[in-house]
Design goal:
Order of helices and strands: H
Strand content: under 5%
Radius of gyration: 16 Å
Helix content: under 10%
Protein name: ImcF domain protein
Distance between the termini: 36 Å
Largest sheet: none
Shape: extended
Number of helices: 1
Number of strands: 0
Length: about 45
């Protein structure tokens, strides 16, 4: 899904009640991404 300016839309879902973050897994079609953090990103700047 893209914004009218062509940039991709991103969603942040938070759950602090009930089952907490695991409640999000009950959403239809919800899948966890393969990687949440990319620790390699930005390491070039440190070298």
């Amino acid at each position: 899904m893209d914004h009218p300016d062509g940039n991709p839309l991103k969603f942040v879902l938070r759950s602090e009640l009930g089952d907490g973050p695991l409640a999000l897994l009950k959403l239809q079609g919800f899948m966890l991404p393969n990687a949440i953090f990319n620790v390699a990103a930005g390491t070039e700047e440190l070298q």
